[in-house]
């Protein structure tokens, strides 16, 4: 669980370093390879750490070198430095490298800063008890949905996502709930960059149709993923707002279509919306009209 979520947090760290280097870095010297002002050594190091975070079974030096396109000597030097700082650890018998505890400690600052995750958990548990299906909490990162918390259903057949896993913004309940809360200009920018990939026969891959769908989400207060990303899976989601009426995240209730049948959609949608409103109130926020 921790490994998948680290990938998201480390990716954010890499992007942040890149942005800082671009904004504040000194002009590169004549022999510098960082022609755009980026600190290439630091970016390589964090890219390595991110790759390890995405592979919980570990990677050896050769695989890391190949996947990152770096010389083995460079990769080994970075790993040795990270190991001294407890950001990575090695299984010497198998020659495999893993993310270390310090990487989790640093990356976990995201949850400390965004304390809505802890605030949402009791409400998520209550929603699972009420409706019997898995409840997820998701945010937007780089135009995609990232799942950051989950309370599982007790049903044998249930929906489970890895924490840190990503989902397309236009083909998920969380994504559509958050898109519906955004200004039109931002929606257009995200969709232009990400596109409307086709996943199932139910995926909305037409911009006009998606805009109509988002308007319906605004009216209802909840979004529906009706087998749009995975056949047989339905999801109902609603956004959570901060004190400025800006969407922080969204919660979703997901399960097999065999249980989330048509005549339950309104009931479940209202329950998810009510739970999202309760979390919003707990955070001192409000849902904009």
Question: Which terms summarize this structure?
Answer:
289 residues; alpha+beta; Arc Repressor Mutant, subunit A; Beta-Lactamase; 2 domains; 8 strands; 47% helix; disordered N terminus
What does this structure look like?
This protein is an alpha+beta fold and 289 residues long. It folds into two domains: 2-107, Arc Repressor Mutant, subunit A (Orthogonal Bundle), CATH 1.10.10; 114-282, GAF domain (Beta-Lactamase), CATH 3.30.450. Helices cover 47% and strands 17% of the residues. It is built from eleven helices and eight strands. It has a six-stranded antiparallel β-sheet with strand order 5-4-3-8-7-6, sandwiched between helices. It has a two-stranded antiparallel ribbon with strand order 1-2. The longest helix has 23 residues, at 2-24. It is elongated, with a radius of gyration of 21 Å.
Q: Report the top-level CATH class of the largest domain.
A: Alpha Beta
| SSE arrangement, N to C | HHHHEEHHHEEEHHHEEEH
Helix segment count? Answer: 11
In terms of DSSP E residues, the strand content is 15-25%
Sequence stretches where pLDDT stays below 50 over 5 or more residues? 1-10, 16-35
Q: What order do the strands of the largest sheet run in, or round the barrel if closed? A: 5-4-3-8-7-6
Instruction: Tell me what the CATH architecture of the largest domain is.
Output: 2-Layer Sandwich
CATH superfamily (homologous) name of the largest domain: GAF domain
Characterize the biggest β-sheet.
6 strands, antiparallel
Report, as a whole number of angstroms, the end-to-end distance.
37 Å
Approximate helicity band: 40-55%
Number of strands: 8
Q: What's the pLDDT, averaged over the residues?
A: 84
CATH topology of the largest domain: Beta-Lactamase
Q: How big is the Rg?
A: 21 Å
Anisotropy-based shape = elongated
Indicate how many domains the architecture comprises: 2
Question: Pairing-aware structural class of the strands and helices?
Answer: alpha+beta
């Amino acid at each position: 669980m921790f490994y998948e979520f680290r990938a998201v947090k480390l990716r954010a760290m890499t992007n942040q370093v890149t942005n800082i280097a671009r904004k504040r870095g000194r002009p590169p010297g004549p022999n510098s390879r960082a022609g755009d002002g980026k600190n290439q050594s630091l970016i390589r190091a964090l890219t390595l750490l991110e790759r390890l975070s995405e592979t919980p079974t570990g990677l050896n030096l050769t695989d890391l070198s190949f996947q990152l396109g770096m010389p083995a000597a460079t990769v080994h030097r970075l790993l040795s430095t990270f190991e001294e700082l407890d950001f990575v650890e090695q299984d010497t018998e198998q020659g495999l490298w893993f993310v270390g505890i310090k990487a989790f400690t640093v990356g976990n600052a995201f949850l400390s800063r965004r304390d809505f995750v802890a605030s949402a958990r009791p409400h998520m548990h209550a929603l699972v008890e009420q409706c019997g299906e898995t409840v997820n909490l998701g945010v937007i990162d780089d135009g995609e949905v990232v799942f950051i918390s989950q309370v599982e259903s007790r049903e044998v057949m249930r929906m489970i996502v890895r924490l840190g896993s990503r989902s397309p913004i236009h083909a998920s309940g969380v994504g559509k709930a958050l898109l519906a809360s955004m200004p039109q200009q931002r929606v257009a920018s995200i969709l232009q960059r990400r596109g409307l990939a086709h996943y199932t026969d139910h995926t909305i891959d037409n911009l006009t149709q998606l805009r109509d769908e988002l308007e319906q989400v605004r009216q209802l207060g909840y979004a529906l993923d009706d087998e749009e990303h995975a056949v047989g899976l339905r999801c109902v989601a609603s956004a959570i707002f901060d004190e400025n009426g800006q969407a922080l995240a969204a919660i979703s209730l997901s399960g097999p279509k065999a249980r989330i049948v048509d005549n339950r959609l309104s009931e479940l949608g209202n329950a998810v919306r009510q739970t999202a409103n309760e979390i919003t109130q707990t955070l001192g926020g409000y849902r904009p009209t």
